[in-house]
């Protein structure tokens, strides 16, 4: 039964979504506990930041290489079944990580399990996206995605905070055991959801299944291509604030590690604020997305020239809030504006684009900061994303005008009997 709640909470009026949001909070908290524990273990074992980078690369590489195949699988089979298989596999891998760390096995074993976790996550991601859209009606999807952002932000803060405490009082293997327990919570939640309250979405017809059919579909959708292109630019140059915040804290601001911690906390608060603001919109439209992108681009361009840590932090908060609004609006439009039978492949392409943007943007911003200085890097990145946003706005406007133009009737030649 659906509860009547204020518009900002409307997704939470769905029984299955309340269960899903609760399970997601538990799962995200466990995931960030494992991320922190894994990074710490690799760094402690090797003493090398490069080794840590390899671990991160191995976790994201599957999304770059086989994302479309994962999306095709999600479109072909019921997503609930894939979610249960993926979560069960993650549980086993978390237990194996705990065993490997406890036994002090070589770092190669950790690399192998990290790669396997990335592989399972790649196949589970599109199915999770499809499944999450089944626990709310279509009109509530944008609100649900906004609350997902809030849950992810809170879970990240909780996970990293709890991980720091547990590592201090216990040991790293406990982090992986706790993460394994969170997968149990997700599996149980999925199993107890009310089957009669799901909002089914179509699976792909056999003749339209497969990667090639999905890519052909995406190539034929102008709006989707524009969203992917804009998302790549915004994610690569406008989302890698872990790089630019560190460069600003260490360089012009002279705030060091403590300042970087403050900025990271402000950024986390901004993502929560952004989720709440996004949840208040009844509809997440393309103009709203473009307006948020232009606003954050301008803030980014001027943020590096503010005189102190307080001023820079004051810019970081609305930028983080705007990023959540942009990402939620983009994800909502990608799902609602694509065929249901293609949604898994569309989400998989989105994941691949995001992974590629991170792989390109982080080193590029780092190089710009080293070569020209952090303020100049932020200026160049902000102006670039602003130009990309303007170009996307013009392209969307052109597409709407073409769609609105009446099709001229084709003259019918006169026949002898006319």
From TrEMBL:
The chain crosses the membrane at residues 21-43, 49-70, 82-102, 108-132, 144-168, 174-193, 223-241, 253-277, 309-326, 347-369, 375-396. Keywords: Cell membrane, Membrane, Transmembrane, Transmembrane helix, Transport. One of its GO terms (cellular component) is plasma membrane. PANTHER family: INTEGRAL MEMBRANE EFFLUX PROTEIN-RELATED (PTHR23513), STAPHYLOFERRIN A TRANSPORTER (PTHR23513:SF11). GO terms for molecular function: transmembrane transporter activity. The lineage of its organism: Bacteria, Bacillati, Actinomycetota, Actinomycetes, Pseudonocardiales. This is Sugar phosphate permease. It comes from Saccharomonospora marina XMU15. It comes from the Bacteria.
């Amino acid at each position: 039964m659906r509860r009547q709640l204020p518009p900002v909470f409307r997704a939470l009026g769905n029984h299955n979504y309340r269960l899903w949001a609760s399970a997601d909070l538990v799962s995200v908290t466990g995931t960030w506990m494992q991320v922190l524990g894994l990074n710490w273990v690799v760094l402690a074992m090797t003493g090398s930041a490069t080794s840590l980078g390899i671990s991160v690369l191995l976790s994201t590489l599957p999304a770059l290489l086989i994302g479309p195949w994962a999306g095709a699988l999600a479109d072909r089979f019921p997503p609930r079944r894939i979610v249960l298989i993926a979560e069960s596999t993650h549980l086993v891998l978390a237990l194996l990580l705990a065993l490997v760390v406890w036994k002090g096995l070589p770092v190669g074993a950790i690399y192998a399990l990290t790669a396997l976790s990335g592989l399972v996550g790649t196949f589970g991601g599109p199915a999770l996206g499809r499944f999450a859209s089944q626990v709310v009606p279509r009109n509530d999807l944008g609100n649900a995605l906004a609350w997902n952002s809030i849950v992810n932000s809170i879970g990240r803060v909780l996970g990293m905070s709890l991980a720091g405490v547990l590592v201090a009082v216990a040991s790293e293997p406990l982090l992986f055991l706790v993460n394994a327990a969170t997968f149990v919570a997700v599996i149980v939640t999925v199993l107890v959801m009310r089957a009669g309250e799901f909002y089914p979405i179509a699976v792909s017809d056999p003749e339209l299944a497969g990667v090639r059919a999905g890519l052909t579909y995406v190539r034929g959708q102008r709006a989707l291509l524009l969203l992917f292109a804009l998302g790549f630019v915004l994610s690569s140059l406008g989302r890698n604030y872990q790089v630019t915040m560190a460069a600003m804290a260490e360089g012009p601001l002279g705030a060091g590690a403590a300042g970087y911690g403050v900025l990271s906390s402000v950024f986390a608060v901004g993502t929560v604020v952004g989720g709440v603001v996004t949840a208040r919109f009844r509809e997440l439209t393309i103009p709203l997305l473009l307006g948020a992108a232009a606003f954050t681009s301008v803030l980014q361009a001027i943020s590096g020239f503010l005189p102190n840590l307080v001023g820079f932090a004051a810019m970081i908060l609305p930028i983080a809030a705007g990023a959540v609004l942009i990402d939620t609006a983009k994800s909502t439009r990608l799902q609602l504006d694509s065929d249901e039978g293609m949604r898994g492949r569309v989400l998989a392409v989105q994941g691949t684009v995001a992974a590629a943007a991170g792989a390109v943007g982080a080193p590029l911003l780092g190089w710009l900061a080293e070569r020209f200085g952090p303020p100049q890097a932020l200026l160049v990145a902000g102006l670039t994303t602003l130009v990309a946003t303007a170009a996307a706005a013009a392209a969307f406007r052109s597409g709407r005008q073409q769609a609105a133009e009446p099709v001229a009737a084709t003259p019918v030649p006169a026949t002898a009997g006319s």
